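Re: the request from the purification team.
They wanted to know what the chain is likely to look like in 3D before they choose a buffer screen. I agreed to run a prediction and write the result into the notebook, where they can find it.
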Amino acid sequence: MKQMQSIKRIGIIGVSIVIAIGVLFLVYTLGFKSGFEQTKNIEISGVANLEHEEDVADFNLFWETWNVLKSKYVSSEKVDDNQALVYGAIQGLVASLGDQNSVFFPPEDAQEFTNEIEGHFSGIGAEIGLDENRQLIIVAPLANTPAEKAGIQAGDYILEIDGETTRGLNTAQAVQKIRGEIGTDVVLSIFREGEGEKDITITRARIDLPTLDFKRLNREGDEDENGDIAYIRIYNFYEQSPFEFQQAALKALLYGSKGIVLDLRNNPGGYLHAATFIGGWFVEKGEVIVQEEFREPLATQTFTSQGPSLLSSKPITILINKGSASASEIVAGALKEQNNATIIGETSFGKGTVQELVPLSGKAMVKVTIAHWLTPQGHQIDGNGITPDITLEKDATQDPTTPTYTAGTDSWIKKAVDTLNQKITQ
């Protein structure tokens, strides 16, 4: 792995951690010929043990393999825990879909995942995913976290974790290896285009996710308490974002802002309802914000703006980069197509699938992909992303170890304000 010379970037097909709010019910069944003690008897149709018919699954093979492992595997202690074997089998079942966003969580992992989406966990503070070659990649370092402070950047490929190759790992497995006790170190061996390989040591900490920043800028792009440009940076679309965005939007109205810069850089996404709520401030009531395309064509759903649309008449520019994913792509796509927003920066990550989080027995859960997201005009986000109207290169003057965006020194914000000035005077 350390001999790796280059990695071809082709296209990004997904990222973990983005959740569509929906009805969390699923009939989840497992058919066994016989089971170990305390396993429930479950009746299943279309499954056989001995018959080898074309349209049925042969569970006899499963139990044959089970017996071989239990009787022959060299480390008996590793096959003593029957429940752990079942969890592994279920993980393999979900992995057979070939979809990195569909994941089974055993009880302990399920609790960690719940803590994360509620906005607090211990680790390094980075969203990770897989490219279409199934290589682990940093989607975005989260603001003011150990990962960002150590210099981790969106687009970094993770080759090794503490000296162990990441080949074959899915995102859930990688997260388990990266997380650990607060105050301990983890070493990521990364490959960065244009720079090659390097090892980065990161000290784990408790991660409390920031949600939103609001500033007033003047027409030069500098922070100014009397400025008439509202700068709103949204870090994620989790639980607190609708409330905090509403407060920021009311400030923009109260201060008489002439235009808005919406900064979605390195925003890895979050909840669908948060994206549609925020989009509703910019898109006229009743207009489409996003479409969900399910396996059955007639099941496609359309999510429209519920208002209040109080910012729909304000000129707007939106900053995105390759770390902008899922819910942030929904908002950027909706405002581009429905509100004539100017998109500035890089093509976004391209994570446009919907996951439903389904609780299972024993406090386990499964995250399963159920739909694709489409923009109002039918553009599929997954694998494509949102293309900017104005493409910018990474600011070479920006210190990569402190990639926090600051009005007055950030050239991208300056460009967004300059573009906004032209829209305001038109």
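For the purification team: The longest strand covers residues 365-374.
Please add any questions underneath this entry.
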